[in-house]
Amino acid sequence: MNFSKLLISWYLQNKRDLPWRNTRNPYPIWLSEIMLQQTRVAQGLPYFFSFIKAFPTVFDLANADEEKVLKLWQGLGYYSRARNLHQTAQYIASELNGVFPQTYKELLQLKGVGQYTAAAIASFSYNEAVPVVDGNVFRVLARYFNMESDIALPATKTEFYNLAFELMPKNNPAQFNQAIMEFGALQCVPKNPDCASCVFNESCLALKMNKVAQLPVKLKKTKVTNRFFNYFIVQDEQGKTLLQQRTRKGIWQNLYEFPLLETSEEKDFDYISSVIEVGFFQPYIPIGIEELNCKAIVHKLSHQHLNIKFWKVRIKGVLESGISLQEAKLFPFPIVIHNFLESL
C-alpha cells in the first residue's frame, strides 16, 4: 500500500541513529523499550548507556543489588518499571538460562512486558509480524485515516492494531514498526505538526478536513489527587541525619526518603512545630526547626500532584542509626528529594 511505502521511505531518510536499532539482541531492545515507556528518547538515552555500561548482559542485571538498579534509574520515574526490569532479568537468567522468549505470546508472560513492549521485541529481534500500538501510532493512524474512535477504550486499541497489521509489510515488520513510531515522534507530533512539509500532506484526511489538532480522540480524563508531604531533614549534634525506606506498595516503593509527615493540606510553621514538639522524634528532643522552602515544590506524577515542603529539625544528642548527608546521597531517592539535597 502507498502509505507503507511512503512511510518507510521517509523513515530511511530521517531516522535517528539510536543504539538499540543497530542490533537484534533482545536484551538492549527490551531494556530500551522498558525505559522509553512514558519517557522521551532524549531523556532515556543517558540512562540506557548507564545501564548497558553497568549491566552489559542480562546476567549482570540479574546479579545486581536492587538498590544499585534503583539508584541508576533515579530520575527516570515510574520506578515499578525498574523493579520489574530487575525481577524479569533474574527470571530470564535463572529460569531461561539467559535466553529471551522468541515469540510475542511468550514475551507477554514476562513481568512488566505488555502488548506494546512484546510486539516491539518480537518484531525487532525476531521479525515477527506483530504491530506496535503506542501513542505515536494512535496519532499517525487517527490523523491519516480520520479515525474518531476514543483511544481510551480497549476496543479502539484492537481497531488500530488490526489496521496497523493490515498496513504492515509482512516481510519486514520491524522496519514498519520503527518507521511509524519515528514518524509520530518526529513529524506527526502532538501539537503544531509541520503538515506543510509532511510526505502525507496530499492524502492525510485530518489535514484535508482541518482536524489535525482534534485527533486522536481521548475522552477519558485522568483524575489527579493532591497530596501534601512534609519531609524532616533531621540533624543531630554530629551533623548526622535519618533515612527511611518506602516499603509499602504505591509511589516510590523501595526508594529512600527522610522522615515524612503527610497532611490533608499545606501546613504552616506553627502546626509543624507543634507536631514535632509533642514527640514526633521521641526519644530525641528537638532544639530547632527551620522551614527550608517557603513555597511547596509541586512534583507532578501521572495521577498525583505532590506538594512537598522540607523542614530542618535539629535534635539534642546523637542519632542511634544516623548517617551523614554525604552517605545519604548514595541511596536511591525519588528525584525530587535528590534534587533538593543537591541544592542544599
From TrEMBL:
One GO molecular-function entry:
oxidized purine DNA binding
Co-factor: note: Binds 1 [4Fe-4S] cluster.
Q: Which Gene3D superfamilies match?
A: Helix-hairpin-Helix base-excision DNA repair enzymes (C-terminal) (1.10.1670.10), Hypothetical protein, domain 2 (1.10.340.30), Nucleoside Triphosphate Pyrophosphohydrolase (3.90.79.10)
Q: Which InterPro entries match?
A: A/G_AdeGlyc_MutY, DNA_glycosylase, HhH-GPD_domain, HhH_base_excis_C, HhH_motif, MIG/MutY, MutY_C, NUDIX_hydrolase-like_dom_sf
Q: Which UniProt keywords apply?
A: 4Fe-4S, DNA damage, DNA repair, Glycosidase, Hydrolase, Iron, Iron-sulfur, Metal-binding
Entry's EC annotation? 3.2.2.31
**Pfam families the UniProt entry points to:** HHH (PF00633), HhH-GPD (PF00730), NUDIX_4 (PF14815)
Q: Which reaction does it catalyse?
A: Hydrolyzes free adenine bases from 7,8-dihydro-8-oxoguanine:adenine mismatched double-stranded DNA, leaving an apurinic site
Q: Name one GO biological process term.
A: base-excision repair
Q: What class of enzyme is it?
A: hydrolase
Looking at the record, the residues that make up the HhH-GPD domain are: 35-186
Q: Required co-factor?
A: [4Fe-4S] cluster
**SUPFAM superfamilies, alphabetized:** DNA-glycosylase, Nudix
The record's section on CDD domains has: ENDO3c (cd00056), NUDIX_DNA_Glycosylase_C-MutY (cd03431)
Give the family per the record.
Answer: Belongs to the Nth/MutY family.
Give a short account of what the protein does.
Adenine glycosylase active on G-A mispairs. MutY also corrects error-prone DNA synthesis past GO lesions which are due to the oxidatively damaged form of guanine: 7,8-dihydro-8-oxoguanine (8-oxo-dGTP).
Fetch the PANTHER family from UniProt. Answer: ADENINE DNA GLYCOSYLASE (PTHR42944)
Q: What is this protein called?
A: Adenine DNA glycosylase
Q: Which species is this record about?
A: Flavobacterium agrisoli
